[in-house]
UniProtKB/TrEMBL annotation:
Residue numbers of N6-(pyridoxal phosphate)lysine PTMs: 44
Domain of life: Bacteria
CDD domains, sorted: CBS_like (cd01561)
Pathway membership, UniProt: Amino-acid biosynthesis; L-cysteine biosynthesis; L-cysteine from L-serine: step 2/2
Catalytic activity: O-acetyl-L-serine + hydrogen sulfide = L-cysteine + acetate
Entry keywords, A to Z: Amino-acid biosynthesis, Cysteine biosynthesis, Pyridoxal phosphate, Transferase
The enzyme's E.C. designation: 2.5.1.47
Entry-linked Pfam families: PALP
Name listed for the protein in its UniProt record: Cysteine synthase
């Protein structure tokens, strides 16, 4: 009998495409890594499978166990999928104001949702996850401190970017949430070219962008190493949403708000550079934001 792959074999090896119009006249090449083509629809499929499979390999968990995670959405959806693939009970804790599409996707994969208030936010969700684990209600994977999060990008996303650009990439632009993507990609790409520039994005004060955070010092992800990021740009919610809508209407690339922020950052960089190869991470698809009204209509 032919040995067919399972769904987890479809995670990674995502397309890299170029902008056609939005970059205007420039000597730079602007490329987008389309992580929304992963099976659960985001870049978080990579660390979700990594955190579960590596914990299994160490003997820390086994199928049938209960896993707990705080999430603003994409990681939760990805973990719900990975838990379904591997046979775990998944409990996800998230702020109540996250989009309905995200909540429904998690539930579709069989996850159980626990909501905290918008005021409590991700900090409150993280605190509750740890409290539940202390009560013996399950094991927290902790994407914010788990080295298997950036490891997924050290072994997957980073090498893919290097190979897909033929080693010509000069700048990587990535929104920063848990910071797993930027940490893992930086670790790999800096090994190949120490001069390659890693640019992170955070929301400017007063902006609320799903998937991007300006963390209070006490909640800064333990996996984050500031030395691995050459530059941090502040992005406004308006700029992110406007760029997101332009990507759909002018380039046919339907993505979320943080991805719009990443491309806005790449376009801003392009104005300063010549003959650069700039890659932005498109971390998810736009369909999970429709109910929020960000696309109008």
């Amino acid at each position: 009998m032919r040995d067919y792959p399972t769904i987890e074999a479809c995670i990674g090896n995502t397309p890299l495409v170029r902008l056609q119009r939005m970059q205007g006249k420039t000597s730079n090449t602007l490329l987008l890594k389309l992580e929304g083509t992963n099976p659960a629809g985001s870049v978080k499929d990579r660390p979700a499978l990594s955190m579960i499979s590596q914990a299994e390999a160490r003997g820390d968990i086994r199928p049938g166990d209960t896993l707990i995670e705080a999430t603003s959405g994409n990681t939760g959806i990805a973990l719900a999928m990975a838990a379904a693939i591997r046979g775990y009970r998944m409990v996800l804790i998230m702020p109540a104001h996250m989009s309905d599409e995200r909540k429904q996707a998690m539930a579709a994969y069989g996850a159980e949702l626990v909501e905290v208030s918008q005021a409590e936010g991700m900090e409150g969700a993280r605190d509750l996850a740890l409290a539940m684990a202390e009560r013996g209600e399950g094991r927290v994977l902790d994407q914010f401190a788990n080295p298997d999060n950036p490891r997924a990008h050290l072994t997957g996303t980073g090498p893919e970017l290097w190979e897909q650009t033929g080693g010509t990439i000069t700048h990587l632009v990535s929104s920063m949430g848990t910071t797993g993507t930027i940490m893992g990609c930086s670790a790999y790409l800096k090994q190949r070219n120490p001069d390659l520039q890693i640019v992170g994005l955070q929301p400017e004060d007063g902006s609320s962008i799903p998937g991007i955070r300006r963390w209070p010092e006490a909640y800064l992800p333990a996996i984050y190493d500031a030395a691995r990021v050459d530059r941090v740009l502040d992005i406004s919610q308006e700029e992110s949403e406007t760029t997101m809508r332009r990507l759909a209407a002018e380039e046919g690339i339907f993505c979320g708000v943080s991805s719009g922020g990443a491309v806005a950052g790449a376009l801003r960089l392009s104005q300063e550079l010549e003959d650069a190869v700039i890659v932005a991470i498109i971390c998810d698809r736009g369909d999970r934001y429709l109910s929020t009204g960000v696309f109008g209509g």
